[in-house]
Write a structure and sequence with these properties.
By secondary structure, the protein is mostly helical. The protein folds into 2 domains: about 160 residues, no CATH class; about 170 residues, no CATH class. Helices cover about 70% and strands about 0% of the residues. It contains 10 helices and no strands. Helix 3 runs antiparallel to helix 4 and helix 6 packs antiparallel against helix 8.
Length: about 350
C-alpha cells in the first residue's frame, strides 16, 4: 500500500533534516577545532548583532561592547554560520513535530512520539549551545553539546530509517546472534566519542605526538584524578584549558588513544563476523561499510598525530565518527527488525 501524503512529507523532511544536521555537526567541529567557540562572546547575537559586524562603525560598537574580547572576523564567522544552520534544524523539527501530531489523528503508524521527542532534544541542544558561549567553553558543557549533537543526528537518522522501507525484516533471524556484540560495539564507540569530546574540550588533542599511545615516559606522567575531575564553574574563560596542567591533558589523550585501540578491536571483530555469517547482501554490505568506515577513521586518527592535527583532517575525524555511529545504529535497527519477521 502506498504511503500517505503526510507520511511522504514527514519522510522528506526527515531526510532534509539528516543532511542539514550533518552540516551542523561538521560546522560545529570546525568551529571548535578552529578555536572559534568564543568567536562571538554573546548569544544568540554576535557582539549585539544578528550577524557578524561588517562596517567600521559596527566593528567599533562591537569592540566597545566587549573591550576584553575584540572582534576577530575569522573566528566570528564560523560561529555565526554554525548558529544559523542550527536554527534551520530547529525549524525543521518544529515542522516535523507539527506534521506528525496532525497526521497521527488519521493514521496509526505515524511516529509522533519520536518527532516530539526530537523537538525536545533539539531545544535542549540549543540550551547547551547557549551555555557553551555564556559559560566560556566550560568543558563539561562543551562535551555535552558535542554528545547532544551526535544524539540529535542519530535520532533524526532513526526517524528517517523508521519511515523508509529499506531495513525492514529480511528473514535472516540467525543474524540476531550478533545483536549483543553490536550493542557492545555501539556502547564502546559512544564512550570513545565522549572521550574524544573531552579531549577536544580540554585542548588535549596535540599533547601526544608519538604512536601507538604517546611519547616515551607517558606512564610516569598519568594523573587520572585531575584529568577527569568535574571542576566547579569558576566564571573565567576555559579556552585552551588553563585549569589543567600538562599531565592531566596527557592523561586525557592517553585515555582516548587506549579507547581507540579497544574500539578498533571490538568493531573489527563485529565486521568480520558480519561478513562470515551473512547469508545475503544486506549484512555483507553492513560488514563492508563498518570495516571501510572504521579503516578511514583509524587512518584519520593516525594522520592527526603524524601531521600535527590539521584542521581539515581533525574535522573529518569528528565527522567520520558520526558516520561510524550511524552504521552501527542502522545495523542495530536491522537486527531488531529481524526479530519481528
Amino acid at each position: 500500500m502506498a504511503d500517505s501524503p503526510a507520511r511522504l512529507w514527514l519522510t522528506r523532511l526527515a531526510v532534509i533534516s539528516v543532511l542539514v544536521t550533518a552540516c551542523v555537526v561538521a560546522l560545529g567541529a570546525w568551529t571548535r577545532l578552529a578555536d572559534a567557540g568564543l568567536g562571538c562572546p554573546d548569544w544568540p547575537t554576535c557582539y549585539g548583532s544578528i550577524t557578524v559586524p561588517l562596517s567600521e562603525q559596527a566593528i567599533a560598537r562591537a569592540n566597545a561592547l566587549y573591550p576584553e574580547q575584540p572582534l576577530v572576523a575569522a573566528k566570528a564567522w564560523p560561529e555565526m554560520i554554525h548558529r544559523h544552520f542550527a536554527k534551520a534544524i530547529g525549524l525543521l523539527c518544529i515542522l516535523m513535530a507539527g506534521l506528525a501530531l496532525v497526521a497521527a489523528r488519521r493514521e496509526k503508524d505515524i511516529p509522533v512520539k519520536h518527532a516530539v521527542f526530537l523537538l525536545i532534544l533539539v531545544c535542549l541542544q540549543g540550551a547547551f549551545g547557549a551555555w557553551t558561549v555564556t559559560m566560556k567553553l566550560f568543558p563539561p558543557v562543551v562535551t555535552g553539546h558535542l554528545l547532544l549533537g551526535f544524539t540529535t543526528f542519530t535520532v533524526i537518522f532513526l526517524l528517517a530509517t523508521r519511515l523508509s522501507p529499506f531495513l525492514r525484516a529480511s528473514g535472516q533471524q540467525a543474524m540476531r546472534g550478533l545483536l549483543p556484540l553490536t550493542v557492545l560495539g555501539t556502547g564502546v564507540l559512544i564512550a570513545q566519542i565522549a572521550l574524544g569530546g573531552w579531549t577536544a574540550s580540554n585542548y588535549a588533542a596535540t599533547i601526544c605526538s608519538g604512536l601507538p599511545i604517546c611519547q616515551n615516559g607517558w606512564v610516569e606522567l598519568l594523573d587520572w584524578q585531575e584529568a577527569f575531575a568535574i571542576h566547579t564553574y569558576a566564571g573565567t574563560t576555559y579556552e585552551f584549558a588553563p585549569h589543567l596542567d600538562a599531565a592531566a591533558k596527557l592523561t586525557i589523550h592517553v585515555a582516548h588513544r587506549i579507547g581507540a585501540w579497544l574500539t578498533l578491536a571490538v568493531l573489527g571483530l563485529l565486521a568480520a563476523l558480519l561478513w562470515f555469517k551473512a547469508a545475503t547482501e544486506r549484512y555483507r554490505r553492513f560488514a563492508l561499510m563498518l570495516g571501510g568506515v572504521l579503516l578511514i577513521q583509524v587512518l584519520l586518527g593516525i594522520s592527526n598525530v603524524v601531521l600535527g592535527l590539521p584542521l581539515a583532517v581533525a574535522v573529518a575525524h569528528n565527522f567520520v565518527a558520526l558516520l561510524l555511529l550511524q552504521v552501527l545504529v542502522a545495523l542495530l535497527y536491522s537486527l531488531v527488525q529481524e526479530g519481528k519477521s
